[in-house]
Amino acid sequence: MLYYLFTYLDQLDFPGAGVFKYISFRSGLALILSLFISTAIGRRIINGLKQLQIGETVRELGLEGQMSKKGTPTMGGIIIIIAILVPVLLCARLDNIYLILMIITTLWLGCIGFADDYIKVFRKNKDGLQGRFKIIGQVGLGLIVGIVLYMSPDVVIRENIEVFNEEKNAVESVNFHPTETKSTKTTIPFVKNNNFDYALLAGWTGKYKTEATWVIFVLVVIFLVTAVSNGSNLTDGLDGLAAGSSAIIGVALGILAYMSSHAEFASFLNIMFIPGAQELVIFAAAFIGATIGFLWYNSYPAQVFMGDTGSLTLGGIIAVFAIIIRKELLIPIFCGIFLAESLSVMIQVFYFKYTKKRYGIGRRVFKMTPLHHHFQKAGNAGIDAIIQKPFNIVPESKIVVRFWLIGIILAAITIVTLKMR
To answer: What is the domain partition of the chain in residue ranges?
Structure first.
């Protein structure tokens, strides 16, 4: 909204109004506003949650410091959502299709998460929203995002074209296709020609190749939205873990969005140029500010938990953001923490069922899942149990910081992969 106001004032030659044309200024302003909003309103929302007796229900699982969390206000994801949306609405161009999709994603998954928390807290149903309804909501969002990216004329790219110097046997420069085109291409890491076209997966469909390609793309979108949002949800088990990890991922996504929307940087990295993606930098800045600001109250010992209201929203935002800037195939790298948490649960469940069926007694690879709880729980499991290696309980705050450090390394690797071919 402020963008349009200052654009109008700039036309009237109002001093300083032209500064709103710059993405760097608007991104910085969005970051500051989101930090201020999350910290300023956080205390009021936490007090309100306490008055409504919206406290966390904790089951005894034998984890260090677990029972001290009982009664801590939950549904704090409301703080994050407000701190993202307000700066975005104030600082960004609201006619940008990518920004519209991000706002829809934030509200859509925020509502699903809120419904889940509401059922847990007010209806005293520890299972929350039934799994099938969560999946339906996530699939619905994936359909919306995929179809809009397919149908909107504003969703275009300019493909990167390498100019090869045969004498030097090297790429001399990277230019871009002169016209903007609809495309199903995305960035793939670790290969020389780092553009992957989903059409390669639909070659067998003959004359229906174009339609089949977009069907495959939409299915990929649905899978990623579901997988990443659930991965974020599983990661939200220790004070500050999900918020801090998401902030780190947000930095990586913001950098990638800026690079993809800037012709010179896109040429340097040899990635496709995405017109209009610069507005996503503002969203990324608000996202980073909101998650860091939330850590003011969510860091150990937490004064509030984000609940599914926050965790599902954060994961969905990350997935859709990556898809829009054509970096979804990098998700396993920069979302490595979410991936490890999800895989630990799947491995545990599969191995337990397999050993119970084969030996009559279920066995575990980890002492407890998701993975972060493995380091909290006393006793041995998996390889530690086999070699009888003693395992010391790791303090919660140390687990969180170590996971953050791993997240920073993964974010750096994500950026570096664009030049590693």
So the answer is: 2-156+202-328
